[in-house]
Write a structure and sequence with these properties.
The complex is a heterodimer of chains A (448) and B (477).
Chain A: H1 3-17, E1 21-37, E2 40-58, E3 61-67, H2 72-88, H3 118-135, E4 139-158, E5 163-180, E6 185-194, H4 202-215, E7 225-231, H5 233-246, H6 249-253, E8 274-277, E9 298-303, E10 306-307, H7 314-319, E11 328-329, E12 338-339, E13 343-346, H8 353-358, E14 362-370, E15 381-392, E16 395-408, H9 409-414, E17 416-419, E18 424-426, E19 432-435, E20 438-446
Parallel strand pairs in A: 7-14, 13-19
Antiparallel strand pairs in A: 1-2, 1-4, 2-3, 4-5, 5-6, 7-20, 8-9, 8-13, 9-10, 11-12, 14-15, 15-16, 16-20, 17-20, 18-19
Helix pairs in contact in A: 1-2, 3-4
Chain B: H1 5-14, E1 22-38, E2 41-59, E3 62-68, H2 73-86, H3 103-106, H4 124-139, E4 144-162, E5 167-185, E6 188-198, H5 209-225, E7 228-229, E8 233-239, H6 246-253, E9 261-262, E10 265-266, E11 285-288, E12 309-314, E13 317-318, H7 325-331, E14 339-340, E15 349-350, E16 354-357, H8 364-369, E17 373-385, E18 391-403, E19 406-412, E20 415-419, H9 420-426, E21 429-430, E22 438-444, E23 447-454, E24 458-466
Parallel strand pairs in B: 7-19, 8-17, 16-23
Antiparallel strand pairs in B: 1-2, 1-4, 2-3, 4-5, 5-6, 8-24, 9-10, 11-12, 11-16, 12-13, 14-15, 17-18, 18-19, 18-20, 20-24, 21-24, 22-23
Helix pairs in contact in B: 1-2, 4-5
Classes of the chains: A alpha+beta (448), B alpha+beta (477).
C-alpha cells in the first residue's frame, strides 16, 4: 500500500471508530551512520524505520495514538485507541486540525546522496579524523567520529481535505577529539550538517574539534567579577535555542515565558533582529510544511529589539485568534505537535569577530557552555558553566575554564552590544539555528 | 508471536552465513502511555505500540547494526546480510554450527519485579486522576502559579538471541510520576521538582503518592520565594542524603564506564587506575542493577547479559569499570551486564543503572556542625559533565546557608562547579544515613536510559559555588 493510501485508510478507520475529525501522519525514514575511531571503522548503522501517528477529535476532545506496524489491524487498533483517549481528555474549544493551503515548492532532496558508495562515505569520516590529527601533534585520541545521512518522507492528511507529502534528505558529520600535553587533557567537539552532499566539508569539522581541544590546554581560572562575554557563533546559536523556547506560543500561553505579554515592547538591545523561516534556502531545518501540514513561512520574531510575534501551531493560533506560523513540530511520531522554531536565526551585523574582541576591555571569549538546559524560562535566572579565552584590552591573555556565568536572560538580551558578520548555521537533528558572534556586557562571572 | 525466542533463533540460523565473529538479534515490543497535565488542563494524552528489531554483526573490531520494524524471517536474514556486508570482512562461514535454544539457562536468573498492577489493566481515568490530584493539591497552596504533572508507564518486552547460543527474555514495566511546580510572589518566581518511578506497575503511584509529592514540591518552591540569592565563591558544601546522587552519577560514574577507559584510548581520568586510590578512603560507590523495583534495575541488560551489583570504588580504591560486550572483549574481562540501549533503534553501550554511594561513619548532624560558613544542598537540580577534563556544573534546587555549624536561611540560584575526580579525593566526611534513591533519565550520545542514584550526607571541604555576583547593575533581582 502506498503512503497516501495508508494515511487515508487510517482516517477512514478513525471515522468508523467514532471520530468527528482525524489527522494521520506517516513518517518513513532511512538512516545511515558511520562511526570511525583511531583509523578504524567501528560501527555502521543502517535502517528503515516507520511510524504512523493518528490524532482524532471527538467533539472538542483530542486524542493521539501511534503504531509502527502498518497492517490494517494495527491501523484500526491505533484509530480506536485514539478515540478512547479523546473521550478521556478535557474538552478544549481551540483544538483542531489545519486547513489545506498551498505548499511552497522547495527542493529538499539531493539525489547525489544516493550516488556515492558506502566506501566514499566511510572516507568522509576518516577525513574528519585525519584533519583533526594533522592540526596539532597534541591531538592524541579521537572518539565517535561520525558521518551520518538521513532520508525522510512525511505524508500527512486530515479530514478537512489537507493532503501533503515531502521528501527531504541531508548529511552531517561530527566528532570528539582529545588533546593532551604533559599536564592534562582536554576535549573538543566539531559538527556540521548540510542539505547537500557536496556542501559538507569533513576537514572543517576535524579542524574545529582539534582547535577547541588544543585551545583549552593549560587553562586557568579567573577571579569572581563582572565583565563582558563574547559568544562565538556556535555558542550564540546555543543561546538562540533558549530564546526559541521563550517565543514558543505553547510556553507563552501557559505563562512559562518571561516574554509573555511583551509584544510591541523592547526586549533586546537595538539592532537585534530574530527571524524564523522554515523555507530558508538550504538551512538545516528547511521544510515545505510543518508537522500539521501548514506551509513554511518567514516570521519576524524580534525586529530591532522589539518583540513582534510568537511562533504558533494550529492550536496556539486558534487560542490567540492568530494564524499558525507553520511551527508545529513533533519530536517523534509518538508526541503531539508543539510550537518550535524551524530555522531560527539572528540577523548578521557588520563587525568581524576580531573587531568585537578588540573592543573588549576585560572578559571571556566563550568557546563552550555547560548546563544550558537549566535556564529558568519564567524568572530568566541562569547559571552556566563556561570556558574560553580571557581577553584584556582587546588582547588574548589565555584559556580559562571552570567558571560560571550567571544572571538574568532579560538583562542579557538588553546588554547585547555587538553582533558579528560571521553567521554559522547548526542543526540537522533537533533545532536548526543560525547565529553570528555576539558581544554582551556586564555579566556575572564566578571563578576562584 | 514476534518475540518468541524459537522463532528468532530459527531466523538467526537461517542467516548463519552472515554471522561474522558474533551475531545478535535484539527484538523489542513496547506499549507506552503518557499523560501530561499542564496549566490546569490535560495537555497530552497518548498511548501507542512500537515493535522492531535490531541485528548486530561483528567482524573483528568492526560492528554493523541494522534495524527494522519488519519481523519476517526474510527481513531478518536480509538485515544480517546487510550488516555482514557492511563490516567488509568475509569471515569463514562457521561450518555446520546451528543454535540450540538455551532457554533453561535464563531460568536461573532471578526475576526482579512482581508487578502487582500491570498498567495495561488500569483504566485510563484512574491514571488521569493521578495527575489531576497532584494539580489540585499544589494549587490549594498560596503563591502557586503553575503545575505540570506527568504520568507515564511503559511495558517493554525484549528477547535477545545471539550466536553464543544465549537467550534472554526480559519484561521491564516502569511507572513514573513527575511534578514541577512554579511559585510566584511579586517579581520573584521559583520552581521545584519531585518525581517517583520504579521497575514497577501502577502500585508505584497508587494511593496518595502524587498528592504528597506535589505538596513537597509546592512547599519547596514557596520556601525559595523568600530566599536570598546564594553567595558566590569557594566554600565548604554539605550534600544532604535526600539531595540524590546526581553528582556521583554525572561527575564520577560516567568516568568509570569502560568505553572511556579502553587500553590505549584513555579518555577518562580513571583509565588504567584499577587497584589504585582514586577517592578518599571514606568513599565506596556501587552500581547495582539487581535491586528489585528500582528505576534503573533490569534482569538482563540489552545484550542479554544477566545484570549484577558492581563495586566501582571500595574505600577509595578503583575496583571495576562498567562493561558492555564490546569493551569487555577488548579488555579481556567477562561482561558485567551494563550494555544498555534506548530502543531497538540504538546500539548498546556501557551505562549505569542505580549508582549509589554507600553509608560511612560520620553522624549527619556532626557533619553540619563541622562547617563554619558554607552551603547545605538539600536538593540537586540538573547538571552536565565533561568526561575528559572531569569538569562539572550542577544547579542546586534547594540550599541553605550553614553559619557556625547551624543551618540558617534558604538561598536560591546556587550552582556547584568543580572537577569530579578532584572532589572524590577531598570528600572528608560521609554520613551513616544512606539516602533515598532518586530517579533520572541519563543521556549519553543522544540515548536516554532510566537510572537511579543516591548518597549519604557528605561534606566537600572546598568547592566553587556560582551565585550572583553583586555589582553596579541594578537590574539584578
Amino acid at each position: 500500500m502506498n503512503n497516501l493510501d495508508t494515511v487515508q485508510q487510517t482516517l477512514t478507520f478513525a471515522r468508523h471508530a467514532g471520530a468527528d475529525e482525524a489527522e494521520a501522519l506517516l513518517s518513513r525514514r532511512r538512516v545511515l551512520t558511520i562511526e570511525v575511531s583511531n583509523g578504524q571503522v567501528e560501527t555502521i548503522k543502517q535502517a528503515e524505520d516507520q511510524g504512523l501517528a493518528v490524532r482524532v477529535l471527538v467533539g472538542k476532545r483530542i486524542g493521539l495514538s501511534y503504531a509502527t506496524e502498518l497492517s490494517e489491524a494495527s491501523l484500526r487498533r491505533a484509530a480506536q485507541r485514539a478515540v478512547e483517549i479523546a473521550r478521556a481528555s478535557d474538552a478544549d474549544e481551540s483544538v483542531g486540525f489545519a486547513e489545506p493551503r498551498a505548499i511552497p515548492a522547495l527542493v529538499g532532496f539531493d539525489p547525489e546522496m544516493a550516488q556515492h558508495s558506502i566506501d566514499e562515505k566511510i572516507e568522509r569520516a576518516f577525513a574528519i579524523e585525519r584533519a583533526a590529527r594533522q592540526y596539532d601533534a597534541r591531538i592524541v585520541l579521537t572518539r565517535r567520529i561520525t558521518y551520518a545521512e538521513r532520508d525522510s518522507i512525511e505524508t500527512i492528511a486530515n479530514t478537512r481535505g489537507l493532503v501533503a507529502e515531502q521528501h527531504n534528505n541531508g548529511c552531517g558529520g561530527g566528532g570528539l577529539v582529545i588533546a593532551r600535553d604533559a599536564r592534562e587533557q582536554e576535549m573538543g567537539f566539531g559538527a556540521d550538517a548540510k542539505r547537500r552532499y557536496a556542501d559538507l566539508n569533513p576537514e572543517k569539522i576535524g579542524v574545529e574539534a582539534a582547535e577547541k581541544a588544543v585551545l583549552m590546554l593549560g587553562a586557568t581560572n579567573v577571579a569572581t567579577q563582572r565583565a563582558s562575554i563574547l559568544l562565538d557563533p556556535k555558542m550564540a546559536g546555543a543561546f538562540l535555542a533558549i530564546i526559541a523556547d521563550l517565543v514558543s506560543a505553547d510556553n507563552v500561553q501557559k505563562g512559562k515565558s518571561l516574554l509573555a505579554g511583551k509584544i510591541g515592547r523592547a526586549v533586546a538591545a537595538a539592532g537585534v533582529t530574530l527571524v524564523d523561516d522554515g523555507a530558508y534556502p538550504d538551512a538545516p531545518g528547511m521544510r515545505a510544511f510543518d508537522d500539521e501540514g501548514v506551509p513554511s513561512q518567514r516570521t519576524v520574531v524580534i525586529a530591532d529589539g522589539v518583540l513582534q510575534s510568537y511562533l504558533h501551531t494550529t492550536y496556539t493560533a486558534r487560542k490567540a485568534s492568530a494564524h499558525s506560523t507553520g511551527n508545529a513540530t513533533r519530536t517523534s511520531f509518538k508526541t503531539a505537535p508543539e510550537a518550535q522554531p524551524s530555522n531560527f536565526y539572528l540577523v548578521a551585523g557588520t563587525e568581524s569577530p576580531d573587531a568585537l574582541r578588540a573592543g573588549m576591555t576585560r572578559g571571556l571569549w566563550v568557546r563552550n557552555l555547560m548546563n544550558l538546559h537549566t535556564a529558568n524560562p519564567i524568572s530568566g535566572e541562569f547559571s552556566f558553566g563556561a570556558n574560553g579565552l580571557w581577553i584584556e584590552n582587546g588582547k588574548i591573555v589565555g584559556p580559562v575554564r571552570g567558571v560560571t556565568i550567571s544572571g538574568n536572560l532579560t538583562d542579557l538580551l538588553l546588554n547585547i552590544r555587538g553582533i558579528g558578520n560571521d553567521v554559522v548555521w547548526q542543526g540537522g537533528y533537533g533545532i536548526s539555528v543560525g547565529a553570528p558572534s555576539v558581544l554582551i556586557e556586564d555579566v556575572s562571572i564566578a571563578g576562584r | 508471536m514476534t518475540l518468541d525466542p524459537n522463532y528468532l533463533i530459527a531466523a538467526l540460523n537461517a542467516g548463519r552465513a552472515y554471522w561474522g565473529d558474533y551475531a545478535e538479534i535484539f527484538a523489542e515490543q513496547r506499549a507506552d502511555t503518557i499523560i501530561v497535565l499542564d496549566d490546569g488542563r490535560l495537555e497530552q494524552l497518548s498511548a501507542g505500540e512500537e515493535a522492531g528489531l535490531g541485528v548486530r554483526v561483528f567482524s573483528g573490531k568492526t560492528s554493523a547494526y541494522v534495524y527494522t520494524t519488519d519481523f519476517s524471517r526474510d527481513a531478518i536474514v536480509e538485515a544480517l546480510q546487510l550488516a555482514h556486508a557492511a563490516t567488509r570482512q568475509r569471515t569463514a562461514e562457521q561450518a555446520g554450527q546451528t543454535l540450540v535454544a538455551a532457554l533453561e539457562r535464563q531460568a536461573t536468573v532471578p526475576m526482579l519485579a512482581t508487578y502487582k498492577q500491570m498498567p495495561d489493566g488500569v483504566p485510563l481515568a484512574t491514571k488521569v486522576a493521578v495527575v489531576r490530584n497532584a494539580d489540585r493539591v499544589a494549587r490549594g497552596l498560596a503563591e502557586i502559579r503553575q503545575v505540570t504533572a506527568t504520568y507515564s508507564d511503559t511495558i517493554q518486552d525484549v528477547t535477545i538471541v545471539n550466536s553464543l547460543e544465549e537467550v534472554a527474555q526480559d519484561r521491564r514495566v516502569r511507572t513514573v510520576f513527575r511534578v514541577n511546580v512554579v511559585a510566584q510572589k511579586d517579581d520573584v518566581i521559583q520552581s521545584a521538582f519531585e518525581a517517583t518511578g520504579g521497575l514497577a506497575g501502577f502500585e508505584q503511584v497508587e494511593g496518595e503518592v502524587s498528592e504528597r509529592l506535589a505538596r513537597v514540591a509546592a512547599e519547596r518552591a514557596r520556601r525559595m520565594l523568600y530566599a536570598r540569592p546564594a553567595p558566590a565563591g569557594t566554600m565548604p558544601v554539605v550534600c544532604a542524603a535526600e539531595a540524590g546522587g546526581v553528582l556521583v552519577h554525572e561527575a564520577m560514574g560516567h568516568g568509570m564506564e569502560a568505553d572511556f577507559n579502553l587500553p590505549g584510548q584513555p579518555i577518562s581520568v580513571f583509565a588504567g587506575k584499577i587497584g589504585q586510590a582514586v577517592a578518599s578512603p571514606k568513599v565506596t560507590i556501587v552500581d547495582d542493577a539487581t535491586i528489585p523495583g528500582l528505576y534503573g534495575s533490569a534482569r538482563f541488560d540489552d545484550e542479554g547479559v544477566p545484570t549484577q551489583r558492581r563495586v566501582l570504588i571500595e574505600n577509595g580504591i578503583l575496583q571495576n569499570y562498567m562493561h558492555d560486550r564490546t569493551t569487555a572483549r577488548e579488555m579481556g574481562v567477562p561482561p558485567n551486564g551494563c550494555g544498555r540501549r534506548q530502543t531497538f533503534r540504538h546500539t548498546p553501550m556501557p551505562r549505569m543503572s542505580n549508582t549509589l554511594m554507600l553509608a560511612g561513619n560520620d553522624e549527619p548532624d556532626a557533619i553540619i556542625r563541622s562547617v563554619a560558613r558554607g552551603l547545605l544542598v538539600k536538593q540537586m537540580g540538573g547538571g552536565q559533565v565533561n568526561i575528559v577534563s572531569g569538569e562539572f556544573v550542577f544547579k542546586v534546587q534547594e540550599a541553605f546557608l550553614i553559619e557556625n555549624g547551624q543551618v540558617t536561611e534558604p538561598v536560591r540560584g546556587a550552582t556547584l562547579i568543580g572537577n569530579g575526580p578532584a572532589i572524590l579525593k577531598i570528600i572528608d566526611m560521609v554520613g551513616t544515613d544512606a539516602g533515598e534513591t532518586r530517579i533520572g533519565t541519563c543521556g549519553k550520545y543522544d540515548q536516554g536510559a532510566p537510572v537511579g542514584h543516591g548518597i549519604p550526607t557528605l561534606r566537600i571541604p572546598e568547592i566553587v559555588v556560582g551565585g550572583i555576583v553583586p555589582g553596579m547593575s541594578e537590574t539584578i533581582r
